[in-house]
Amino acid sequence: MYQRSSVFKDETKLDISYVPRRLPHRDQEIQLLRQFFNFLLQFPGKMAQRVIISGDVGTGKTVLSQRFGADITSEASKLGVKLHYIHVNCREYRGSLFLILHQVVINFHPNFPRRGYSAEELISILFDVLDEENAYVILALDEFESLVEREGSEAVYKLTRMQEIRHGKPQRLSLICIIRNLKVIERLDASTRSTLQSNIISLEKYSKSQLIDILNDRVPLAFKPSTVSEDTVNLVAELAFSEGGNARFGIELLWRAGKYADAEGFSIVLPEHVRKAASSIIPTVRKSEIAYLSFHEKIFLLAIARIFKAAQTAHITFTDAERAYAVICEEIGEEPHSHTQLWKYLKNFAAMEIVKLEVSAKGARGRSTLIYLPRIPAEELEKELSMLLEKDRRSL
Amino acid sequence: MSLEDVLSSRLRIKILKILLKMGELNVSEIARRLGVNYNTTSQHLKILENEGIVKHKMFGRIRLYRLNEQSPKTKALQNLLESWEHSNK
Q1: A128: distance to nearest CA of chain B, Å?
Q2: What CATH number is given for A27-203 in this structure?
Q3: In chain A, domain spans
Q4: pTM of the full predicted structure?
Q5: ipTM for the complex shown
Q6: Is B24 within 8 Å of A128 when comparing Cβ atoms?
Q7: Does B26 lie at the interface with A, CB-CB under 8 angstroms?
Q8: A69-117, pLDDT tens digit by residue?
Q9: Do B59 and A110 touch (CB under 8 A)?
Q10: Domain A11-16+206-280 adopts which CATH fold?
Q11: DSSP codes, A205-270
């Protein structure tokens, strides 16, 4: 069969999960992480470490932690230290300490049951597992906010302090907490804060020239030679810079531009392809974040997107959204979730900055919550959610 | 226990097949897959463990069973089950 040629050599190098060998402009931070965890290689079990990595979306928090994790585990294995780096996105597990810890345990025992014990028991089980394997874990808690929001200080306290009371036993669990905003830490109580706050690595937003370096690093890995011009890279960097120095956005934009070039049968990626890609991308909200929403959260958000698409208004009310949600539930034969549950979903969308909420001035029928969709084109959001819901339903 | 005694139970053979496939499981999950209750499963696992064919590890209240791969009996049974499954494909 005739196969159309592509500008890509290896698209996976632009995937969100790809961890490059080199992280331009994050050398210092990698060095700092090495300093913080060096003792783990020299004196395993003597102490545990806790580090916070903070920074805005697309500043390289996740990839920094993953690169460091891959490097330190390979170094540890050369030294005969059984060190595991486990990266868990807390939002993916709804911020539940239990589910997060279960994810860690199944790294060692893949069929470990999900029921029949509490989160506290699971922490102690985890230490038993690690003792038995004589293993150490660096647990990276990505989107740590989610854990703090759901479980509060208690969970973090348990995670950090439970191993300290294992008198005479090795310290096996170290933490890397990845957050967007350090303000989250302020919500924790003083004693929990004190266990976390000593080592903080704050990542600054990338400048345009730094974004150019990052993109230039990826281009030869992902694209065939001479398919991406300097102009194209410059434009992608410019747009990523205007999105708050968001490297992830830039990398995804580059991938989409390549897709447009392929679809139009071009052998090079032109700035025009970047423009087309930019108008199709959902800015600031990551596709992955929407993908992590629960099935009913996705339905509710789809309902919101549909009203905005149809009504072309600046805002809608919570009641409008609730009604549209009920209609979709009926369409697909799902039992609708309660008013209170939908309210929680809406607060979550606001926390994720997908929607903005405002309380209306007191009218004849009292105050109501107004929902704005300030950043995302409703049509794009609807398309994305319809696709994700279809995928979810197929896997049910 | 003689070989015929060990293999005289359909449930014990099923347990071996389950553990061969899954690697490691807790008692409740084995019971669920067998479609029998916890106590019955536990008794059969005990017999297999006494024969050194399976072994378990405790984590808190959770008991995880797996085949005892060090045992020549297990190896022989493993070969038998695998050959049997293979020739039935």
Answers
A1: 7
A2: 3.40.50.300
A3: 11-16+206-280, 27-203, 287-395
A4: 0.76
A5: 0.84
A6: no
A7: yes
A8: 999 999 999 999 999 999 999 998 989 999 999 999 999 999 999 887 8
A9: no
A10: Helicase, Ruva Protein; domain 3 (1.10.8)
A11: PPPHHHHHHHHHHHHHHHB-TT-B-HHHHHHHHHHHHHTTS-HHHHHHHHHHHHHHHHHTT-SSB-
